[in-house]
C-alpha cells in the first residue's frame, strides 16, 4: 500500500490518497477539488470510499464534488453527521470562507476493524478536537491517519464548537500512544511524525 499526501485549501489541510494494486481510499477531501481529482485520476485506481477523520469545514471542502465524480460512499462518525450541512457546527460560519454545506454521509464509522473493498484497517475514536474525531490505523504499513488530534510537536485546537482539551489529551494518551512506537502519524495539518517522536518531545501531552 502507498500513501500520498496533498496539502489543500486555505488552511493547508492534508488530504490523503491510499492506493493498493487496484483500488484507492480518499481521506479528508479538504479543498481544491479540481487539483485533488486530477491527482486521483493520475493514479488510475478505482476509488472505493471517502473517509472523514472529522467534519470540520477545512476537511470537507471538496467532499461533494469528489463524491459526485466517483460515486463512492462517505464514511463519518455518527456524532458529526449533522455537521456536514451545518456551517455553525463544521466551523465555516466563523472563518472568512464561504459557508460549507455538504450532502449527508452514507455510512457510519464506529471503533473497530473495517473492510472496504480490498482495504483492511482499524478505526479508533479520538474525540477532543471534535466529538466524532477518529483515526485510521493501517497495520500493514504501520501508519495512523490521525486527523486533527495529534500533530508533529502539537495537538488539535479545542476552542471550536464541542471541542474539549481534557478529552483530546485522554484520546492521545490512551488511544494513539498505545500504538507501537514505530508507527508513522499522518496528521490533518503539517508534516508526518511518529508515535515515538511525539511521546519523547510533544510539549502538549
From TrEMBL:
This is Metallo-beta-lactamase domain-containing protein. It comes from Halolactibacillus alkaliphilus. The keyword Hydrolase applies. Keywords: Hydrolase, Metal-binding, Zinc. It holds the Pfam family Lactamase_B. PANTHER family: HYDROXYACYLGLUTATHIONE HYDROLASE GLOC. SUPFAM superfamilies: Metallo-hydrolase/oxidoreductase. Transmembrane segments: none annotated.
Amino acid at each position: 500500500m502507498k500513501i500520498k499526501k496533498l496539502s489543500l485549501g486555505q488552511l493547508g489541510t492534508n488530504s490523503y490518497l491510499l492506493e493498493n494494486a487496484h483500488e484507492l481510499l480518499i481521506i479528508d477531501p479538504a479543498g481544491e477539488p479540481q487539483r485533488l481529482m486530477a491527482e486521483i485520476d493520475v493514479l488510475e485506481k478505482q476509488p472505493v470510499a471517502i473517509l472523514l477523520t472529522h467534519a470540520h469545514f477545512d476537511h470537507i471542502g471538496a467532499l461533494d464534488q469528489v463524491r459526485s465524480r466517483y460515486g463512492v460512499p462517505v464514511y463519518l462518525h455518527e456524532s458529526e453527521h449533522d455537521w456536514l450541512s451545518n456551517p455553525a457546527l463544521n466551523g465555516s460560519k466563523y472563518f472568512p470562507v464561504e459557508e460549507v454545506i455538504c450532502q449527508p454521509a452514507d455510512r457510519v464509522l464506529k471503533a473497530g476493524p473495517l473492510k472496504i473493498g480490498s482495504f483492511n484497517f482499524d478505526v479508533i475514536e479520538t474525540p477532543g478536537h471534535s466529538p466524532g474525531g477518529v483515526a485510521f490505523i493501517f497495520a500493514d504499513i504501520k501508519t495512523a491517519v490521525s486527523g486533527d488530534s495529534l500533530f508533529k510537536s502539537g495537538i488539535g485546537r479545542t476552542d471550536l464548537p464541542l471541542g474539549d482539551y481534557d478529552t483530546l489529551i485522554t484520546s492521545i494518551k490512551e488511544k494513539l500512544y498505545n500504538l507501537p512506537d514505530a508507527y508513522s502519524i499522518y496528521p490533518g495539518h503539517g508534516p508526518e511524525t511518529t508515535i515515538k517522536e511525539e511521546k519523547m518531545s510533544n510539549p502538549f501531552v
